[in-house]
């Protein structure tokens, strides 16, 4: 019976010792990067009203959120991600602000998926949001920040893949397909399932050229040189504008010197419905998922008040740590601690030494000898 | 060069897949040695590693990135529901996922009555009855010889793979409804697809050519 008290619930865990030190170190590096880009910290509550994270705003479906009730019977949720909370804050506190706002956050998020045993349900996220700036320069800045976060963590080999949902949206609009038709299509494209798409497209009577682009979307990814080929596929002005935006971002990233980490994928359609423009993911070896994700969400803040364009990115810190562990990237977080041991009589002397050491910045412990 | 690791579902499918791979010049002699007790086989000069796994586990290996690529039936992919790229239809092991049972069960099925469904594929069965048929049913998970269930009265119908239908016929069962067509697929880990884009894209392209030529 007593042993049961030692367990944590499925999906959450303790982080301690060396691992905890390493995590705090990496977090401090990431936050320092965001400060260097001029982002200001913000804290939002761990739980909020359910409506903040509902379907059209949310990143996870309602069934995957931890829900509970307050005394008045309102439905509350443990936040599954932080961007909607920031959007709410922008609409509330930065209403009169017309210039760019840069905010960064650091907190726990919760996903109540019961699909697979042992998958974590609590994640630390560190993220940044750049609001009131619709420019392509803002897009490039967030991607540069993403690169710097990967480098700051000490991960040498990684890829940032950039997509643009505008391309897909322009094509389906031209094809005259509605939101309902698109959902299944989106899932198949996301799974890079071309033959499933082919089957699906047979159900629709749309222009052959458009249909071919949709069926080929899962293959429209690769290095920057390919963007030219993608552009040649269509004469849809909006779709071409999307690709030209990606080209512009690439040329801006050259100014930072980060172009070698970049590739493109027009078939990348985030499950986050709130994205309206570019979306991007950072990948490395040792984990099956993106470590950093982000994108442009020009319609989200408007759902809480005055509309404002915005772009954001978030690091899933626990996933980053897991990848680093599997790649044997170790930070020398083993700091030296001076140990002083004293009995009752010598305590005053030993304490003095410890105080001196701490003054010089050396961690020190004083322990009583029994 | 980093190894590209391929997980193959044990059995006939693994052999057929190696056949396709050998046509594009990827061979693995180690694997043909039947005496060998090795679990993992390598082709050093081309940088490939292969291992055999239980079909249900292949999507898991690939999702977690322990294998970059997996070869497995569509039935397993749908049942496991893992996050993967499903990139190629190998056009092998073609069959259908069906609702089957004795002819007498058709009436209860059509009337949307509360029936018992025995299956090795509870996720597929649940999805089909809930979201396609909108019928409340009791799903009973079994691990083999599913055809037995309606015969001994464990369930009214079964959800299972049907290839030729001869096992069903011999046991007095018929296909009542078809849920989906099935075949072997190639799945790819999402991160591997980005990190090893060039090699994996080439592999997919080469395999597609062989499959299309075969018709």
CATH fold annotation of the largest domain in chain A: BirA Bifunctional Protein, domain 2
Number of strands of chain A: 14
Give the strand line-up of the largest sheet of chain B. Answer: 2-3-1-4-11-5
CATH superfamily of the largest domain in chain A: Bira Bifunctional Protein, Domain 2
Radius of gyration of chain A: 24 Å
Summarize the main sheet of chain A.
9 strands, mixed
Architecture per CATH nomenclature, i.e. the level-2 architecture of the largest domain in chain B: 3-Layer(aba) Sandwich
Global mean pLDDT of chain B: 92
Percentage beta strand of chain A: 15-25%
How many DSSP E strands of chain B? 11
The H-level CATH homologous superfamily of the largest domain in chain B, spelled out, is Periplasmic binding protein-like II
Please tell me about this protein's structure.
The complex is a heterodimer of chains A (370) and B (215). Chain A is an alpha+beta fold and 370 residues long. Chain A folds into three domains: 2-158 and 284-326, BirA Bifunctional Protein, domain 2 (2-Layer Sandwich), CATH 3.30.930.10; 165-253, no CATH class; 338-368, no CATH class. Chain A has helices spanning 17-36, 83-93, 136-152, 165-175, 179-190, 194-202, 208-216, 227-231, 237-256, 317-326, 347-359, and strands at residues 40-41, 47-49, 67-69, 75-78, 101-110, 122-131, 159-164, 221-222, 262-265, 278-283, 292-296, 310-316, 338-342, 364-368. In chain A, the strands form three sheets. A nine-stranded mixed sheet of chain A has the order 1-5-6-12-11-10-7-9-8, with helices on both faces. In chain A, strand 13, helix 11 and strand 14 (364-368) form a beta-alpha-beta unit. In chain A, helix 6 (194-202) packs antiparallel against helix 7 (208-216). Chain B has ten helices and eleven strands. Chain B is of the alpha/beta class. Helix content of chain B is 37%, strand content 28%. Chain B has two domains: 4-93 and 183-214, D-Maltodextrin-Binding Protein, domain 2; 95-181, Periplasmic binding protein-like II (D-Maltodextrin-Binding Protein, domain 2), CATH 3.40.190.10. The mean pLDDT of chain B is 92. At the A-B interface, helix 6 and strand 8 of A face strand 5 and helix 9 of B.
